[in-house]
Amino acid sequence: MSEANDCIFCKIIKGEIPCAKVYEDDDVLAFLDLGQVTKGHTLVIPKNHKKDIFELDAETAAKLYKRVPMIASALKKTFHPVGLNVLNNNGEPAGQSVLHYHIHLIPRYGSEDTFHFTFTSHMDDYSNDDRTAMAASIAENLEK
Question: Transmembrane stretches, by residue range (predicted)?
Answer without folding.
Answer: none
